[in-house]
Specification:
Number of strands: 5
Helix content: 40-55%
Strand content: 5-15%
Radius of gyration: 16 Å
CATH class: Alpha Beta
């Protein structure tokens, strides 16, 4: 571990992939750059696919694991919410994804999201507890809401009003950094 970069699998949807941005503006590349600025050598792998749900993640999880990461940033849920999937089914699929990763003895940073109010307060009431419940069940570090770093700020979003622009990705990454540093320390002390 000391003689090679730490491999971080960024596993998620368009918010990970960098929808509408150039490849060097996507979260994994920005994260790698910010960590390098702190003297932390990493190889951040982009396993983000626009439109993906937890169920899609489950179908491609073995490709991500085949890259032999040292830790995983798990970021799904936005599309599950937008498609109004039932909270129980999201919870079940997310649980399956997490269990597969944990069987590989890989630390996970769970990146949560909250349902937008226009999904209806009833749906939001059922959806929003999913990520805290998963974090508690599996004792995972949780970044509660990826949207909180940029959403609603037109200076940080693309014209669609949903996805972060390059500045929005920088804001998300800065917010995630303290959690990622802790996970890197966990990986380094473990080896």
């Amino acid at each position: 571990m000391k003689d090679r970069p730490i491999r971080i699998a960024c596993f998620g949807d368009s918010l990970t992939e960098g929808y509408g941005l150039s490849p060097d503006e996507a979260l994994p590349i920005v994260l790698e750059r910010m960590l390098l600025d702190e003297g932390i050598q990493t190889d951040c792998l982009n396993f983000g696919v626009s439109g993906d749900t937890f169920e899609d993640g489950l179908t491609r999880i073995h490709a991500m694991l085949a890259a032999r990461p040292d830790l995983v940033i798990l970021e799904f849920g936005a599309n599950d919410s937008f498609m109004a999937y039932p909270a129980e089914s999201i919870m079940a699929t997310a649980t399956a994804v997490i269990e597969i990763i944990l069987k590989q003895n890989l630390p996970i940073l769970l990146v949560g999201i909250t349902a937008l109010p226009d999904m209806g307060m009833e749906y939001k009431h059922h959806f929003d507890p999913i990520f805290p419940a998963l974090a508690k069940k599996f004792k995972l570090p949780l970044f509660p809401d990826i949207l909180s770093s940029y959403f609603g700020d037109s200076a940080l979003t693309l014209l669609d009003g949903m996805h972060p622009n390059a500045g929005g990705v920088e804001a998300i990454t800065r917010s995630l950094l303290p959690h990622i540093r802790e996970l890197i320390n966990t990986v380094q002390t473990r080896n």
